[in-house]
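[RESIDUES AND BACKBONE]
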Amino acid sequence: MKYAVDEDFIYKNFTRNVKTYSNKPSKDNDAVSSCIIIVAIYTGARFSEIAGLTKDNIDLETGIIAVNKSWEASELEFKSTKTVASNRVVDLPPISH
């Protein structure tokens, strides 16, 4: 989130006071949560769709994310998206250095 604020993608870190909880310890839970939130903002993807992203779905060279499956945590498996129309390719905003 700090990066998004620093780069003027967003104006305020709305996750500053958010507490996340997990059954599994994480070395950097805040960074993971921030990435999920940013992907959700830019793609409009549901949490299960974001959890279902694999490295094959993300192309940083062309700046696209392909949303084509979701992760069913209760069954520990990939599933199809909620609807056929949910399958989509989303352009990422340009990254300025």
Notes: The radius of gyration is 14 Å. The longest helix spans residues 29-43. The CA atoms of residues 49 and 70 lie 4 Å apart.
